[in-house]
Specification:
The chain is an alpha+beta fold and about 180 residues long. It has two domains: about 35 residues; about 120 residues, Jelly Rolls (Sandwich). The protein contains two helices and nine strands; from the N terminus they run ααβββββββββ. The longest helix is centred in the first third of the chain and has 19 residues. It is elongated and about 85 Å long. This is DUF4879 domain-containing protein. Keywords: Signal.
Length: about 180
Amino acid sequence: MYYLSVIGRLTNESKGGRIVKIKKLLTLLIISAIVMLPSASAFAEDVNSTEVTPYIVGIGDTQATAISLILNEYGGVVYDLFIQNSTEKDWFKWTNTSSGYKRVYATVGGFSGNGVTRAGYKINYNNGFGETQLFYTEKANTTESQTFGNIFVPAGATVYIVVDAPNFSSAPAYHLNFSAYDVN
């Protein structure tokens, strides 16, 4: 009520510019107050929940539909994912498009809360000689980091990384860190 009487007095006392300035100021104050009001996030969730909710299901579940690893400018890529059940496998692939050998390094795990997973790799030479068998780390089916290092991948070959959880009891999260370097 007080604001209305002030505006009423100002309209009687002045003409033109002063009224417009006050109206703009009041409008700005009201809009600022509305913007500053707290609101609930559209993405809010129960922070006490221990359940992992899948957001992407059915992508990269077979070697034929493997997720392509696109390396950043430093030659690496990182994914934080999880296994949904005992039959699910997450497949990833990277093809050496250079004219020479690349040295590949991959780690599965490596952070607190990593679940019991099994990581493996194989190489398809894409030259008529076929592909290798699937090799697993010595720390398969554990919560420890599983690392493949110094895998030499010839030009044109594709390396596949697979992560699964055959001893599944709950949805294990995992961290995949993949990188490729020139062989010197």
